[in-house]
Design brief:
Layout lengths: L5 E5 L4 H17 L2 E8 L4 E3 L3 E3 L3 H13 L9 E7 L2 H12 L3 E5 L5 H7 L2 H8 L4 E4 L23
Helix pairs in contact: 3-5
């Protein structure tokens, strides 16, 4: 049997990520593993007009921190750690997995195909190809998943996405 001590759950706070979180919690419970919940903020966009104008990302960072803090495991005794970092999502997910010594990555996927995937890319696909450990992806809702995943409060925070 595969020893699972540390599970990484990258999240973008989507419905598929919520379903993946439920699965990650179940696995963490069954294996008595630590669960790392990770959100990667994309690098800030710089707008060029009459000069360089940096875009203020503080609102998005506050929203992401609040959203991470709102994620609650189904059992308070679960060993859950939250991380918020900035960078290119796939690369940062793989870096964190390697640095933390993760045994498994459990993540949602949007199930894009065709031109949409070509133009938008696929973080999950890149992670599956290059991760330092096995990757489980969740695409469709799991009907019997039970986990507490509180909706983040968006009051005063910038919209995400």
């Amino acid at each position: 049997m595969l020893p699972v001590r540390i599970i990484l759950h990258p999240t973008d706070f989507s419905d598929n990520a919520r379903q993946a979180f439920a699965l990650a919690c179940g696995l963490a419970r069954d294996y008595k593993a630590e669960l790392i919940v990770l959100h990667v903020l994309p690098p800030p966009v710089v707008v060029y007009s009459d000069g360089i104008v940096p875009v203020d990302t503080e609102g998005e960072e506050v929203w992401a921190r609040d959203s991470l803090d709102a994620i609650a495991p189904p059992a308070p005794e679960m060993n859950l750690r939250r991380r918020l970092i900035e960078g290119e999502p796939a690369a940062e997910i793989m870096r964190v997995a390697k640095e933390a010594g993760c045994d498994l990555i459990v993540m949602g996927t949007h199930g894009r195909s065709g031109l949409e995937r070509f133009f938008m890319g696929s973080v999950a696909e890149e992670v599956m190809r290059n991760a330092p450990c096995p990757v489980v992806t969740v695409r469709v809702p799991m009907p019997h998943a039970e986990a507490s995943f509180a909706e983040p409060s968006l009051a005063g925070a910038a919209p995400h996405g």
